[in-house]
Design a protein that fits this description.
globular
């Protein structure tokens, strides 16, 4: 029996952008089935109500760029790509596994040589790429912050200038938690001065915490070594969080080893389409961790942790670095992820605060870490944990997004602040410096008394004698 003839299929259009990052990532576009599940998960679509500002709409634009239907310098397409926060909430919602974050970075890297980069972004990326400039900038920022001037200026400056001032003011340590007497002096000094990193070890999630093991099963063993990614903004403006991180790790049985030679993780560069800059920074960090040779690499900034876990992908086509990058990615853990694996050991000093937790997007969506930060908070005696409605929605920080797209960033932040106000919490706990500064600034400018801390600060405070 002769089979029925089939209708000829139209040949796929030739790729108009061969050899570009977007062409290399194009297979990810094929996974999208245009179901629309991503729409309500997307903060820009929810706030702007434009299909082109949704993940599905942007994927269509990416495809049209590849097919040559739209030029790389098209202003409208560039605007819709720029407006994306890169929060990756769409990846959590997507049933088809579209690697949207990788596609977004590839698209921006493909468009950047033609469109250029906004001045503010160029300045920030240049500073973060060069270590000496970054150290000087952060030193100056600390001096200004500690003078108290940013808080005062935020009350009188126009909104565009007031918000950055309030962001800087929000990085000051919470006086209720910043108690130097309960931090080992060596730990505090090391956190402020040495670029050390902490790597979550090979402990499997099913491994019982040391405190739950029967005496007969305990065997002498060296404590897992952890190198803390001290970070750029974390070491420059959040040294108190790094100190609390080391305190919590030590209390839970990890040995923190200093790691010199660290640089910015490269996340800001990758998100902006500067893949060359991101790869250069990644190589420096990989070499630094290899010299320290810890069991684990621990990160207390969600965006940086997501970046380190992607080093393997970032350098997958570099024969000299691909395997080395993947080894570091495999060692990397968020601090909450690691401490939850080890217990965490319950605190002994009550912290009688009403706390709500706002999970950073690059913790919840990029790393798929949801429960560990809550486990840390539940280990703090006296703390009242209040659920936050719409906690999975972005706060609008997104690296330097709030500097280059302030109007959209403000629109995304507004509902987050409203949900926080509904909790009547005294403290918001969040594990990313950008989110902490964004939410902290919004709360200050709104006249709220609520402050922002890292979850590990609360846990470390509960370990005070």
């Amino acid at each position: 029996m002769t089979p029925a003839p089939t209708a000829p299929t139209a040949p796929s259009p030739a790729c108009a952008l061969p050899g570009t990052p977007l062409a290399a990532a194009a297979a990810g576009l094929d996974a999208c089935v245009h179901c629309g599940f991503c729409l309500q998960a997307c903060p820009t679509y929810v706030n702007l109500e434009d299909e082109n500002d949704s993940p599905r709409g942007r994927l269509v634009l990416m495809r049209r760029l590849l097919d040559g239907d739209i030029p790389l310098d098209d202003a409208d397409t560039g605007r819709h790509i720029d407006r994306c926060l890169g929060c990756r909430a769409c990846e959590t919602a997507c049933p088809s596994g579209v690697p949207y974050g990788e596609l977004l970075e590839a698209t921006r890297a493909t468009m950047a040589p033609v469109r250029g980069t906004p001045l503010v972004a160029r300045v920030v990326l240049t500073v973060f790429r060069h270590h000496a400039l970054l150290r000087a900038a952060l030193f100056a920022a600390r001096l200004v912050r500690d003078s108290g001037l940013p808080g005062a200026l935020a009350r009188v400056l126009p909104a565009r200038l007031a918000f950055p001032m309030a962001m800087l003011a929000s990085t000051r340590p919470n006086p209720a938690l910043a108690a130097p007497q309960w931090l080992a002096p060596a730990t505090l000094a090391r956190s402020q001065l040495a670029p050390s990193q902490l790597a979550p070890s090979t402990l499997a999630p099913s491994t019982p915490a040391p405190s739950t093991l029967a005496p007969s099963t305990l065997a002498p063993a060296p404590a897992p070594s952890a190198a803390l990614l001290t970070g750029c903004v974390m070491s420059g403006l959040f040294a108190h969080v790094n100190a609390a991180t080391e305190t919590a790790l030590t209390h839970n049985g990890f040995t923190v080893c200093p790691t010199s030679g660290q640089r910015c993780c490269g996340a800001l560069h990758a998100h902006a389409g500067d893949l060359a800059g991101a790869r250069a920074l990644a190589r420096e960090n990989i070499a630094a961790f290899e010299r320290a040779n810890p069991d684990l690499v621990v990160v207390n900034a969600a965006g940086c942790g997501a970046m380190l876990k992607q080093y393997g992908h970032l350098l997958h086509d570099d024969p000299a670095w691909a395997e080395r990058a993947q080894r570091i990615s495999n060692k990397t853990r968020d601090v909450s992820e690691l401490l939850a694996t080890a217990g965490p050991v319950a605190g002994t000093r009550p912290i009688p605060l009403r706390v709500t937790h706002d999970p950073p997007c690059h913790q919840m969506h990029a790393q798929r870490i949801v429960h560990p930060p809550l486990q840390l908070l539940r280990a703090v005696p006296g703390l009242t944990l209040i659920p936050l409605e719409d906690a999975d929605q972005c706060c609008g920080s997104a690296g330097i997004y709030n500097l280059v797209e302030p109007a959209t960033s403000d629109a995304v932040l507004a509902p987050k602040l409203a949900r926080i106000a509904e909790t009547h919490a005294e403290v918001v706990a969040t594990g990313n410096p950008g989110c902490s500064m964004q939410i902290g600034a919004g709360l200050q400018l709104a006249g709220a008394k609520t402050t922002v801390v890292h979850p590990v600060e609360l846990l470390a405070a509960s370990y005070r004698d």
